[in-house]
Amino acid sequence: MPDPVSVASGICAAGALLSSWQLRRRAVRAEAEIEHLQAELAAERHAASHDPLTGLPNRRAFYRLAATLLTDAAGRPLIAVVLDVDDFKLVNDRYGHAAGDQVLISVAERLAAFAGDNPVARLGGDEFAGLLVSPSVDRRWVDHATRRLCEMLAAPIPLGGFSLRVTASVGLAPVTGPAQLTEALRQADAAMYRAKSVSADRAARQLVDTVGLPD
After folding, report:
1. Which residue range is the domain that position 177 belongs to?
2. Distance separating alpha carbons of residues 31 and 192, to the nearest angstrom
3. Does residue 215 have an active-site annotation?
4. Three-state DSSP class for residue 157
5. In a domain, 206, yes or no
């Protein structure tokens, strides 16, 4: 006949093992729930600070990132960049909004590649901005950077069975101090609109010249 004490001890040991196993399961579930909640929180934070189409920081996040760069620049020259896709509405009207979305994604990717580790953002619509650490703020460097960025943006964009070329008007302006980002962006925006106006005038002149040619 089994010893009652041994049986009781065995039952207690089994109960302790079962309780320990249940506690471990609860701990694992709790850790999984915490990880899930943390992932959801991170996703919500990312969504609140990034453009859902291009994945770039939005306007609010850009100003926050730019403020950090302005603080850490340690006297290095900084350049504000503003760009706007030319005739973007025509892309949507002619090829559809899916094509327009792909154009914006491509522009965002090319601007990010141009900027490297520097902050860039989609401000809204087809307007983008960036803040670049530059080796210089002289006119030659600014003109060279503007041309290079325009060339990158003008490369063909694959759209299914065909490719599309778009152009962008770009404005750059130096940031003269930690508190001057807003003014530099305003100057870059003004330079961008001047570039857009020149492009429109050139296109109009080309159209007039073409119309005036003999058949």
Report:
1. 59-212
2. 51
3. no
4. strand
5. yes
If you search the block for the tokens 């900027």, which residue do you land on? 115
pLDDT in tens, 148-197: 999 999 999 998 888 999 999 999 999 987 778 899 999 999 999 998 88
Distance CA 166, CA 84 (A): 11
Backbone angles phi, psi at 51, to 5 degrees: -70, 130
Residue with tokens 């154009």: 103
Of 51, 86, 126, 189, the active-site residue reads: 126
What's the predicted TM-score (pTM) here?
0.75
Sign, Cα dihedral of 58, 63, 67, 69: positive
**What is the rounded distance in angstroms from the CA atom of residue 127 to the CA atom of residue 108?**
10
Residues 67 and 157 grouped into a single domain: yes
Ranges assigned E (strand) in the chain: 78-85, 120-124, 127-133, 157-159, 162-164, 168-175
The SS3 assignment for 71 reads helix
